[in-house]
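Fold Annotation — chain and its backbone
Next Lines — sequence and tokenised fold

***
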Amino acid sequence: MIQRILKGIKTAGTLEEPVKYTEKTTRSERFSHSDRYMIVGLGNPGEKYEKTRHNIGFRAVDALIDVLHAPSGRHKKNGIVYECRFKDYKVVLVKPLTFMNLSGQCVAALARFYKIIPERLLVIYDDIDLLEGQLRVRAKGSAGSHNGMRSIIREFSQSDFPRIRVGIGPKDTEYSLSDWVLSEPLMLSSRESIQVACRNAADCAITWLSCGIEEAMRLYNKH
């Protein structure tokens, strides 16, 4: 299915600067930006955190960069953004550089800049309450125990936006929660499981872009 969907990808390009609305801006002109999507992968910047469990969101975005043939990223609003196209949609891939607990500052600023409505925002992040490698897709929901999502919900003052949770549990009893999420998996099987899960999260995001959140939930919540 993903291969059929990917046939709709256009050559990556740069998005135009956002329109500044005025009182004279017509309704049709305002809604011309409803074809914009933003996909955010949560994580911490820097080589130190690159392979940790908490950086699954960043790794899923890396997989999307490859799939969508996105051009090199650039710094904007405390994040790295990769602007590309999928079918007739303009897609912005984002890695916040604020560190996890302040992710919302970057995401909210970029959502305002690109005129992203909540239904067109997808956030990918790790979840300690799911088994390692498991995906859960939702159209909305709470932040649970995830500080990055708490920050985003706080900045948006709402939680009605889609998300993909990628399992990193169960936590080893010898670790604290913070030590677990900020550590790299020691076992090869765990590293491979997380790698596959990041690719699956990227595929799920493509399904969301092409078919919507209901289809993404139907296909990826059954595993």
About this structure: The chain has one domain: 2-12+32-220. Confidence is low (pLDDT under 50) at residues 8-32.
